[in-house]
Amino acid sequence: MIARTVSAPRVRLPTFRVTTLDRYMISELAGPLLFGFFAFLSIFVAANLLALSRLITEEHASLWAVIEYFLWGLPAVIPYVVPMAVLLGVLLAMQRLSGESEIVAMKAGGISLERVAVPLLVFGLLLSLLTLYIEQTVVPYANDRATEILQMTIKRAPLAGGNLTVYAPLPGGGRQLTAATGYDVSTHSLLNVTVVQYDRSGTPQTIIFANRAQAQANTSWTFAGARTYRFNPDGSVIESREQTLVVDIGEGPTNVLQRVKSSPEDMSRAEIAQIIRSGQLNRTQLGQYVQEYLSQLARPFACLVFSLLAVPFGIRRVRGGGTSVGFGLAVAIVFAYYVVMTISNSVGAQTESLAGIMAWLPNIVFFAFGLVLLRRASFGAG
């Protein structure tokens, strides 16, 4: 008797293929999306032209320095422009398809409106992830470079901060004063640093000068090319120069960063997390930092929300207007979204336990509203 081995049935995993419909919908979205991106970007640019012109007339800045400052400032508006562009792009694309009865033809061919919206939603999700990456990596670096150009090249002032003074106790009972004229955020370095160490009676014992001090571990900083003056009890002074000198000033880069960037809106999520972990925020500040930390993760997904909302709004028949009607509708939706976002963030900042739900509330509300409208529109005539 021959034993037969019975093989287990093969489980077929679902396959996801890009169909002709998907490629067609993305191709229809490409043109309006680019138009929306440059249209909204031009609005942000126009709003800043007056401020840029003042840098030339009042600060006597060179044209190239202003142009460089302007270019480094552009990435900061991308997280706001891209969701708006997605909204307008999907609106215009759906208006064209609906106006030429292509949506009706798709429905007659057995293609539901939900299936038509799938490639637009997937594209909106991908743009959300891309926007999140840009906001957390490109934007902080570009902002630091723009600040550096503005302060050092245009205003010819310390890079950042005018109140960088740190007091710290010394082991022997004295105290130490550290003063700096600026802070280089990109390299975590204090600029033009002076350290004065006093004994218990308040008499200066040591003075250290350095052009730059770079942050190391915890509260230690490495002073490059430091000049040290030590005062002896007999009144003599010993001067020395050291290539590198490590000094504990009592505060680390996290605390300095909090002073330089006075609000969490100017920080990345990684920088905000450092401030929160430092444990030096009061209750009010902690709520603001936690809310901004969570909001920065939720905001980019407005691309996905707007791509869904734009589908049912776009297929509504509107007499005349065309692009202008779509643009006006996009502005109205964006305005409503950001009003809800501002209110929810304010509530979340006041109540830490609600920070998470408040950060995502605008996306949840508008996404649910979009699902309802899409469902209703799928039973309409298109």
Description:
This protein is α+β, with helices and mostly antiparallel strands and 382 residues long. The protein is 57% helix and 16% strand. A six-stranded antiparallel sheet has the order 1-2-3-4-5-6. A hairpin with a 4-residue loop joins strand 2 and strand 3 (189-198). Helix 1 (20-57) packs parallel to helix 5. The protein is elongated.
Keywords:
382 residues; 11 helices; 2 domains; alpha+beta; six-stranded antiparallel β-sheet; 6 strands
Q: Which SSEs are present, and which pair or pack?
A:
Elements: H1 20-57, H2 63-73, H3 78-99, H4 102-108, H5 113-154, E1 164-169, E2 175-184, E3 189-198, E4 204-215, E5 220-231, E6 237-248, H6 253-260, H7 269-277, H8 283-298, H9 302-314, H10 323-350, H11 355-378
Antiparallel strand pairs: 1-2, 2-3, 3-4, 4-5, 5-6
Helix pairs in contact: 1-3, 1-5, 2-5, 3-5, 3-9, 3-10, 5-9, 7-8, 8-10, 8-11, 9-11, 10-11
